[in-house]
Amino acid sequence: MELTEALRTRRAVREFTAETVDEAVIAELIGAAILAPSAINLQPWGFTIVPGSERLHKLSTEAKQHILSHPPTGSPIATYAADPAFDIFHGASALIVISAVDGKRQSSEDCCLAAENFMLAAHAKGLGTCWIGLARPWLNEPEVKAELGIPAEWHPVAPIVLGHPRALPSATSRHRPKVVWSR
Q1: Tens-place pLDDT, residues 156-171
Q2: HEC profile of the chain
Q3: CA nearest 133: which of 115, 160, 105?
Q4: What is the rounded distance in angstroms from the CA atom of residue 120 to the CA atom of residue 9?
Q5: CATH class of the domain whose range is 3-54+91-163
Q6: Each residue of 28-37: pLDDT tens digit?
Q7: pLDDT greater than 80 at residue 77
Q8: Which residue of 40, 135, 161, 163 has the lowest C-beta tally within 10 Å?
Q9: Treating both helix axes as pointing N-terminal to C-terminal, what angle do 107-124 and 23-33 enclose, rounded to 10 degrees?
Q10: Cα 29 vs. chain centroid, distance in angstroms?
């Protein structure tokens, strides 16, 4: 897939089939992620793969409980989290957690760059992704890190679900960019 086409057509996918994503494909996507630039080439990212839609469905219940007990200020998400049918991981076959492995100033931003590479590479392979930002505070809890095997010193930055999309959502309009030319 040509890069501009991938940028134009990648969407957040929230409906997945039951088909799993092969581990070799996930390894390829991580290979694309680590091609991202990083401050002074520190490459401060670590990857935790949590496979299995059934496991993710169970973890969704835990994440929703955390959201309900620590609701984001001004967010209507608590309404969704209270719905027993709502799956925060959208039935995906895997969760990929990209974490900053150190406390350096730019590490979180560098992980975001790796995440975008990961999502674009997945889209180019016909796979769907969705960044699950609401899961980040829950993923940073020490007991959750231990449960998922995320090293205690890592800081989860980009929780991304991955799977085979039921359908690609249609494009949404973009606002005109706010641009200031400083001359």
Answers
A1: 999 999 999 998 888 8
A2: CCHHHHHHHCCECCCECCCCCCHHHHHHHHHHHCCCCCHHHCCCEEEEEEECHHHHHHHHHHHHHHHHHCCCCCCCHHHHHCCCCCCCCCCCCEEEEEEECCCCCCHHHHHHHHHHHHHHHHHHCCCEEEECHHHHHHHCCHHHHHHHCCCCCCEEEEEEEEECECCCCCCCCCCCCCCCCCC
A3: 160
A4: 10
A5: alpha beta
A6: 999 999 999 9
A7: no
A8: 40
A9: 130
A10: 13
Q: Which of 158, 17, 166, 32 is nearest to 93 (CA)?
A: 17
Parallel/antiparallel/unpaired status of strands 94-100 and 128-131: unpaired
Closest CA to 13 of 173, 172, 162, 174: 162
Task: Write the CB contacts of 74 (distance below 8 Å, at least 6 apart in sequence).
Answer: none
Structure tokens at 143: 């007991």
In one letter, which amino acid is 80? Answer: Y
Residue 28, both tokens: 């390829």
> Residue holding tokens 């020490």?
142
Residue range 109-159, pLDDT digits in tens: 999 999 999 999 999 999 999 999 989 999 999 999 999 999 999 999 999
What residues does 47 pair with on adjacent strands?
98
